[in-house]
Amino acid sequence: MMPYPVIVELSRLDEAYQILDQFSKNVWDSWDDYMNFPFLFSFQNGLRVLVGHPNPPPVFVPFPDLFVHGLKVYIDTTNLNDFIIKLPILCGGGPISFGSFNNRHVTAVEITCRTQTSLQVPNFSTAEYNILAFIHELMHCYQANILKDQYPNLEINPDFNFALFGDIEGKALAKSYEQPNYEASIPFLKDFCIARILKIKYLTQDEKNSYECVEFSEGEAVYSEFTILQNIKKGFISCSSIKNDTTYKRFQNIEDYMAFYLNMLKSSTGNTLNLYDKNYWYGCFQAILLQTYFPGWQRELENGKWLDQILQERISITGLDSLKSLHRFREIYHLDSLKTEHETRITVRNETYKKLQSQKGRIYIIDFKPIRQLLSSSVNISKKNFELGLINMYPDGLGDLKFDKVSISFKPVLTEINQLYYVKLIDAKSKESKKPYKINYESKDDKGFYYNVIVTTPLFELKAPKITIIKSTNRIKFVIHSRV
Q1: Distance CA 349, CA 215 (A)
Q2: SS3 track for 435-484
Q3: Which domain holds residue 33?
Q4: Closest Cα partner for 199 from 250, 231, 236, 160?
Q5: Same-domain status, 164 and 296
Q6: pLDDT tier at 242 (50, 70, 90 boundaries)?
Q7: Is it the case that residue 116 has pLDDT exceeding 80?
Q8: Does residue 454 share a domain with residue 368?
Q9: Is residue 351 part of a domain?
Q10: CA 20 to 30 Å from 65, out of 73, 104, 383, 464?
């Protein structure tokens, strides 16, 4: 018997396909391959569900009499545990290579499903949010057909110039979108274009290509969500399987959903250090404005131009326009106060990094990669945080983290999250500590796994169902192998 929450998520995928049947070509006129990419769902009880794979790996067996939009369903029960999955579930993931068919890699959408005590996305129910997330990831799969060239995702650390003009261009996009017509919108579009030129003028060509490629990739996937909502607003036909989902309201109050995107654009503009998140909203609204005022922009992008390049060419910026925008930066966007705000944040970030690099003492690492727990999203958003590349620096520590059966209480010391999955702390007083850690556990096996442990160190207390410990002269690494 398939657990009810799993049936619900599969019905939401069915609804995503049903919606794309009706509206995919309104997003991109040749988007018709969305049924070609399997979905791999992973649940907290260890169950994995594979939908629509042409050649499932051997651990997956067919689940009888269950189909998602006509696609076969397979399950892997080899790692089941006693965790009871419950609604609401929040889904997230992305495309991966998973298995092969006819000697070619199969691109699948990997979806991690986590029970949520409260939805962390305003305005959305989990049903509508997850349906749009499935559509978002399927658009990522399609983008290989759109992009003439692919570029690596280089990590760009914003300096003062990048942060300042990035703030102005986001504000200009929002103002342009809010105008009633093209004539009123065009000055703000020109402001955006001038700010973009100033923002990226110190980047190398490789950095520009990387930045604009990611902005299109993430932004256009969000644009696909927004365009789908615009079409749903006019009316759509829901699929029959979704009736099992009592929380799904078929996008009632759709104006609230659509307002979420503009709110996210506005809230992201002033963020000095979080560059990556801006790609979603800046790219989305460039695409929205292009579609509103310059239909047909998709062909230019397929021919190798980026969103901002198409905008700049369509509105024909003159030298006088540049002078006007520079004046408007002070009068409308309050350039001088923005300078102070961003310069302060950049300075504090740099000072925090210097302090991090100068620390001496015993190193503690907590490794969450085996359970694929993205750490920065688990930390309370009120915690002071400075980003630098793949490092998140928390001057006052992480506080308390808890998910599933894992919990950690950190002392308020400078703490680093590195490469998404690793927590790093340095005990500056380690010479005074008699023991680097104490451990209590229920059992231990001959492979070095400790079960149901409590680890106490001078800087944190860790509780987890299953860990290993790797030690060297001045470094101790705790690897989390299970969340339940």
Answers
A1: 24
A2: CCCEEEEEEECCCCCEEEEEEECCCEEEEEEEEEEEEECCEEEEEEEECC
A3: 4-145
A4: 160
A5: yes
A6: confident
A7: no
A8: yes
A9: no
A10: 104
